[in-house]
From TrEMBL:
Similarity comment text for this entry: Belongs to the outer membrane factor (OMF) (TC 1.B.17) family.
Source organism per UniProt: Flavobacterium omnivorum
Gene Ontology CC annotations of this record: cell outer membrane; efflux pump complex
Protein name: Outer membrane protein TolC
Keyword check for Transport: yes
PANTHER family in the record: OUTER MEMBRANE PROTEIN TOLC (PTHR30026:SF20)
Xref: InterPro entries: OMP_efflux (IPR003423), TolC-like (IPR051906)
SUPFAM superfamilies documented for this protein: Outer membrane efflux proteins (OEP)
Keyword DNA-binding set for record: no
Single GO molecular function: porin activity
UniProt feature coiled coil, ranges: none
Compartments (UniProt record): Cell outer membrane
Length: 437
């Protein structure tokens, strides 16, 4: 009869878990990443910044196009005037009205500025590439965060399952202890100990449920959706054990976004020096305009006049002396280029260091996964043997509890080892710049 009650309790618990699972959305990692790419605010901001950089890449922004302006000037006056002519004639007029109206269209075009405009255009293109690199860095970082948060949930879910299992076992132990107490084969102390241990397991389960719920909120936040959205993740946590350090370093040198950004910054600094050096050459501008002018005067030889027509010409300027500002600016620009070269070397060194340390951690975690998997298998066998012995009363409750805790702890350690291994894999792929989108 006791075995039937245990089976019934296990079936009810299993049915409840299945029903709850079916009511929840099963969120895959691919779906989580897709939602984050569509909704994450940092990704949206980085995308908008890239759009700004693309918009700035224009020949007009580089100064290659002329400027065309329309001008209107209207001056009016009311004055008391008096005039004395050469023949001695005097003319006076109060409240004399005068009007001067000028309007037209003018064009100004810099046709040569020491090739500064071409260097500026190239610099705008490099700034666009920098924006693309910054977007890539944001994408990889956020995808890495989603990966880590997702597999943390997988780990939390596995630990929940382990604690559910220990609750079932503790219920079995309490039932057996009560039955043995009823028939006089056990003391009340055994029943109380079983009840205390069951309560302890239930407290641990509640704490784990709280941690699991908070981890869900974090993942929903990363996906920029309603934080109360309920879902379930997959139960499998697999670590790629085939990553090789030389391949990762080769990938990092060619596509790590932080290294790419430093290389682009060096090109931007070199183009800035070209623009500064352009000031050593003359600047030539052409201009033309079509204007209409009309003036009216209440007093004088000419009371009304009009004119219209083209104006055109050119101007040229050359800086001869500016207080040595040109030399100073060129010197500063060359220092900035040197700094950018050192930043590339520094980033390379930091990248190789991070890859080497992360890879060593990755190898250690792979070994730990193998060890903890064996430990879990041994602990499970030990628990099964101990449970059988406990049922027939050949071992103490303390020995049974020890075997039970060893099994639960082994499952938790194995799950945590897998999670730490996955984090190492994610970190290596992030550094290599090939984290799958």
């Amino acid at each position: 009869m006791t075995h039937y009650k245990i089976l019934l309790q296990s079936f009810i618990l299993f049915f409840f878990c299945v029903s709850e699972t079916n009511a929840q959305e099963v969120l895959t990692l691919e779906s989580a990443v897709k939602i984050a790419l569509e909704n994450n605010y940092e990704i949206k901001i980085a995308t908008n910044n890239l759009t700004i950089q693309k918009t700035n890449v224009a020949i007009g922004n580089a100064g290659m196009l002329p400027t065309v302006t329309a001008n209107v000037l209207d001056n009016n006056s009311i004055q008391n005037s008096s005039q004395t002519r050469q023949d001695g004639t005097e003319n006076e007029l109060d409240n004399a009205k005068n009007n001067n109206l000028t309007y037209g269209v003018g064009l100004n075009w810099t046709i040569f500025d020491g090739l500064r405009m071409f260097a500026r255009m190239d610099q705008l293109k490099e700034l666009q590439k920098l924006g693309e690199t910054q977007l890539k860095l944001t994408l990889i970082t956020r995808i890495s965060d989603v990966n880590a948060a997702y597999y943390d949930l997988v780990q939390q879910q596995q630990q929940l399952a382990a604690l559910d299992t220990t609750i079932v076992i503790s219920n079995q132990r309490l039932t057996l202890a009560q039955n043995r107490f009823t028939i006089g084969k056990a003391s009340k102390l055994e029943v109380l100990n079983a009840q205390v241990d069951l309560n302890t397991d239930q407290v641990a389960l509640l704490r784990q449920k709280e941690l699991y719920a908070n981890s869900k909120i974090l993942l929903n936040q990363l996906m920029a959706r309603e934080v109360s959205t309920d879902f379930k993740v997959i139960d499998v946590l697999e670590v790629d054990s085939l990553l090789l350090l030389p391949e990762l370093k080769a990938l990092a040198e060619s596509q790590n976004p932080q290294l790419e950004a430093q290389i682009i910054n060096k090109k931007v600094a070199e183009l800035e020096l070209k623009q500064i050096k352009a000031a050593r050459y003359p600047t030539i501008r052409v201009n033309t305009a079509y204007n209409f002018s009309e003036s009216q005067s209440s007093l004088g030889f000419v009371t009304q006049s009009q004119s219209r027509g083209f104006n055109y010409g050119f101007s040229a300027s050359l800086n001869l002396f500016d207080g040595f500002a040109q030399n100073r600016n060129e010197k500063i620009a060359k220092i900035l280029i040197e700094n950018s070269k050192m930043s590339i070397d520094q980033q390379n060194l930091a990248l190789n260091s991070q890859l080497s340390t992360s890879y060593q951690t990755y190898l250690t975690n792979l070994e730990l996964i193998g060890l903890e998997e064996k430990n879990e298998s041994i602990a499970k066998q030990n628990l099964n043997i101990t449970l059988d012995k406990f049922r027939i009363g050949t071992i103490t409750t303390l020995e049974f509890r020890t075997a039970q805790l060893n099994y639960v702890n082994a499952k938790v350690r194995y799950s945590n080892a897998q999670f730490q291994g996955k984090l190492s894999e994610i970190a290596l792929r992030e550094l290599a710049g090939n984290l799958i989108f």
